[in-house]
Amino acid sequence: MDPRQRNITIAWVIGGLILFALLQTFTSGQTESIEFSRFLDLAEGGQVTEVNISETSVSGTFESDEGEREFSTTLPVNYESNQLVDQLRENDVEVTATQPSPWFGLLSFILPFLFIGGLYFFFMRRMRNQLTGGGGPLSLGKNKAKLYDRTDLKTTFKDVAGVDEVEAELAEVVDYLKNADKFRKVGAKIPKGVLLVGPPGTGKTLLARAVAGEAEVPFFYISASEFIELFVGLGAARVRDLFQQARDRAPAIVFIDEIDAIGQSRSGAAGGQMGSHQEQEQTLQQLLTEMDGFEPNSGVILVAASNRPEVLDAALLRPGRFDRQIQVNLPDISGREAILRIHSRDVRLTPDVDFKVLARRTPGFSGAQLANVINEAALLAARRGKEIADMSDVEEAIDRVFAGLERRSQVLTEKERRVVAYHELGHALVARFVENADPVHRVSIIPRGIGALGYTQQLPEEERYLMSEPELRDMVAVLLGGRSAEEIVFDVATTGAGDDLRRATEIARRMVMEFGMSEKVGPVSIAETGSRFLNPMFRQGNDVSEEAQVMIDREVKAILLEGRDKARKILAEHRDDLDGLAVVLLDKENLSRKDLDEFFGEPTPKDDEDGSKTDDILKGHLPQIQRQG
Ligand code: ADP
Ligand code: MG
Ligand code: ZN
Predict the structure, then answer these.
(1) Which of 376, 424, 471, 487 is catalytic?
(2) List of E strands, 12-89
(3) Is the minimum distance from the CB of 342 to ligand 1 under 6 angstroms?
(4) Range with the lowest mean pLDDT among 26-30, 96-100, 348-352?
(5) Range 146-327: architecture per CATH
(6) pLDDT band at 449 (very low <50, low <70, confident <90, very high)
(7) Of 99, 377, 563, 575, which sits with the fewest C-beta atoms within 10 Å of its C-beta?
(8) 3-103 — its CATH code?
(9) For a substitution probing ligand 1, which of 158, 159, 164, 206 has the most ligand atoms within 8 Å of its CB?
(10) What whole-number distance in Å separates Cα of residue 76 and Cα of residue 50?
(11) What is the CATH code for 333-403?
């Protein structure tokens, strides 16, 4: 309740109380309240001159020593007043009677309902005001869409990097709107809708803002979750309203962010609770109607973004709605470099910060994560009392974003630290001495994030799109190097290798089942597709014979065993290096590529090779292996 309303309520209550008190004093001014027995005495003594009997009380006048006085008294419950009347009549007292008004009964019946109804109405209205952001019930369907003016938007395409194709497409959209005539003359139909899809943090929302900054047309921005309301039908009203506004101001761009919030497949199990499901469906329906409703050249273009295009309703993706679908991908190495540069504009960095190296160290990072790296570096530098962040701060920041915050508070026993150090060095040494592995960039035994007690990071010399069979086999060996080192040095296995084993197994399985790299199984693809993999129902009906399954398992195991043997052999040969490096690592907690090269007195053996073997090359997704926990 806002303070003004509260004050009014308090005033009413106080006013009522005063009025009541006044009435009391007026009516009972000279009236004397007497006991019933006294009244009976007075009546018997013939002193009462006049009475009025109501259901519950008697009032009237009696004669006292000081003259006539008014009195009133309460009748006992269920008192038989007829007797009283007879007696009074004998004494010639004038008797009148009052019956309670029939209205009174009715009122006392209705009032509580009125009261409750009033309260209900009052709260509903307040709730609705809150939902619609105030402004009374009439603003129910009004929109929360923000209308951006070009002047107060500073984001432009200059703030976006690494997504050049998307920029080009969106620039085209802007062009359509600015020079609609040019296209109309040739008879071209301007697309109605453009859908941006891609992983989170790749800059979709940022692109939207940049388009708004670039386009010299009104730009309506709304996040789809804002359509979803408590009241069924409200979202649909909002959609209608939004498009109406856009049409009124055409040419205009309407941007709906996170469209999966309303565009979820209606057939799927999506939707959550019953009520919201219905609301979602109506909102989606309205959106479809609006999209069909406007003419291709009406000057309104809808741009939407989603992280999860696979859940979007098929109706949305039908031709004639989102004619263009633009994939926003994770940035490649040059894109990462450019993004890092953009976000370093306002951060003071020493000249030794090498963006090329940083870009190489951050494969798979999204734009948002890269922005975060630079900011973390600045925070770190400030915390360390520096005024300018240097390369070490940025490297540390990458570690943080990459593997989570350091948990220096987590205390490992000395024995555990030794196990972790040898484990990580096992990865590092195998990586260094196998034929086809990426060079080791960093080894750390500082516990980080959830679960990771240390890590070894390898870095490809360049962006890679293909991997060869020997590389995959060596990758398995590197992954198994951690466990192998533990076994060689301590003679026992620990739980620390669980994740390594899982990933090594996954690589081996994919080699056999997806990439046709097993002689015995042959060049067949038996891979479960993504969705089948996720849905346990389908896994039963695997079209692989039991016999083939046994063979697959045997082949997978063979790859793993071969990798382990290779790792063991290397580590046994380099046992001295292992022990020597362990001393350094336990002391410093981190080893860089430079430290390793210094220790061995030579650069990583295969540093000069370009690493891209062209024989035995397979096409397909790269298993993303940069880290061994
Ligand atoms: P999405 O909407 O795709 O999930 P955002 O646009 O919200 O991602 O990105 C979050 C932040 O990350 C942006 O505000 C920006 O600072 C940074 N960022 C992401 N991608 C890029 C990029 N391609 N170029 C520059 N900065 C980016
Ligand atoms: Mg976004
Ligand atoms: Zn490991």
Answers:
(1) 424
(2) 32-33, 48-53, 57-64, 67-74
(3) yes
(4) 26-30
(5) 3-Layer(aba) Sandwich (3.40)
(6) low
(7) 99
(8) 3.30.720.210
(9) 206
(10) 20
(11) 1.10.8.60
